[in-house]
Amino acid sequence: MGRSGRVTLSDVAKASGVSRATVSFVLNDDPRQTISAATRERVTEAARELGYVPHGIARALREGSSRIVVLNVDRGIEGNFSRSYVRGLDEELAEHDHVLLVRHGHAAPEATQRILDAIVPRAVLRLGEAYMSGHESDESDETDERDETDEQGEVGAQDAAGEPDERDEQDRETGFAANAALQIGFLAERGHTRIAMALPDHEFPLTKARLGFAREAARRRGLAPLERLVVPRPREAGAAAVEAFLAAHAEVTALAAFDDDIALRSLTALRDLGLRVPEDVAVIGFDDTEYGSLSTPALTTVRIDAEILGRIAARDALGIDTGGLAPVRGQIVDRASV
Q1: Interval 117-141: pLDDT, tens
Q2: Which residue, of 32, 96, 125, 133, has the fewest CB within 10 Å?
Q3: pTM of the shown model
Q4: What's residue 49's pLDDT?
Q5: What's the burial of 254, exposed, middle or buried (CB within 10 Å: 0-12/13-18/19+)?
Q6: Going by C-beta distance under 8 Å and a sequence separation of 6 or more, which residues neighbour residue 263?
Q7: How many Å apart are CA 27 and CA 9, to the nearest integer?
């Protein structure tokens, strides 16, 4: 073994009785070299027994990048979706001899660049990037009453103007738009026609997309335009906000929350105000977390398994065919709050 304690190419060469160059050709599967099957087997067996791991920096210099894929996860996207997405991404990359590095929260561009310069990643991904780019939804928070021909309307607001592209259609079937519609549809099917969207008190990267898709779903079902309710921290502020909102919007009978965290804030506020859930106001969460199952009443929510999406992202990053992998639609976890 080398001085650092790592198993080197020279160690594998000595154990297999061949030159260091031959070991390199075999382990890198160099197509330009003609090496017998017996020699290949001897080298790979020696590498396996010694526990040889390719030197990442050397491989990066040789291939032009490392076998590391970086995933940036913004604050406010923690939940079952992100966990299952990371699991699928990690497992698929591992199957193709790559490593996943996950970075959480906001980071200064300079810090990010230092990391990228150091590891020369194969690819850099951002969870939810497609929905942050404005392609799916350019929803404005400022107004509900807008011209249906406005070029800045949400997906589906201009169906008469032309055929939606394949990506939009797929998203309505199994993607983020479909899951947002699932949440609103569950309330509508139980007789709720006046619904408010319960939102966090500061912008997360996916807030506008979530609100836009929910409003589109309500419009498609012929419901009244969704009201917008911000439920802040701390507890007293949340209760005050909900109380003021319901005083001004007595017709609202259900809250569709941005995520389970906001749903639980809403449940707490309603209970503090002496209101019953779901008899007075129904509440549905989004992106199932364990805490929702422990609340009183237990939280009805939307569960999204994004493992397949992670696997698709991994293959896209590596330039591998994604055939046979298709996103799956979320499911309602029906508990007691609706």
Answers
A1: 778 888 888 887 766 554 444 333 4
A2: 32
A3: 0.71
A4: 92
A5: buried
A6: 198, 255, 257, 283, 284, 285, 286, 292, 299, 301, 337
A7: 9
